[in-house]
Design brief:
The chain has one domain. The protein is mainly alpha-helical and about 120 residues long. Helix 1 packs across helix 3, helix 2 runs antiparallel to helix 6 and helix 3 crosses helix 4. It is elongated and about 45 Å long. About 60% of the residues lie in helices and about 0% in strands. It contains 7 helices and no strands.
Length: about 120
């Protein structure tokens, strides 16, 4: 199990939205962002990987990422908080915020770009 958790964290930490692999959720399904992000960040068996990453019951994790939207349950806020606060939290938070046009968020993104540019000098 330890190696599987490391793999899930590595995949999540090294995935980004910039490559266009996560598409924003439609207005008709606002929870689709989590399903889409899970598939990209955790791979084909996203439910099991989510279980390893969060410690939540496997059955619940599979329900949060069910392929059939009618059977899918939205993840609870405490699960999202746990993901956002983890070492692998940045891509999850970015997926959650994808498409946000609030000025404060755009300012944060600009500041991160400047920081990365300075770090790479």
């Amino acid at each position: 199990m330890g190696r599987t958790l490391i793999d899930a964290e590595f995949r999540a930490r090294n995935s980004t939205l910039e490559n266009g692999s996560i598409t924003p959720a439609s207005e008709s399904d606002p929870d689709a962002w989590f399903y889409d992000a899970s598939r990209v960040l955790l791979g084909n068996d996203a439910g099991l990987q989510l279980h390893y990453l969060t410690g939540y019951p496997q059955s619940s994790c599979y329900a949060y990422v069910a392929k059939n939207a009618a059977k899918r349950r939205p993840p609870p806020e405490h699960l999202l908080r746990k993901l956002f606060h983890s070492d692998a939290g940045e891509p999850w938070h970015n997926a959650f915020m994808h498409g946000c046009k609030a000025q404060w968020w755009l300012d944060v993104q600009d500041a991160l770009k400047i920081k990365r540019a300075l770090d790479n000098r």
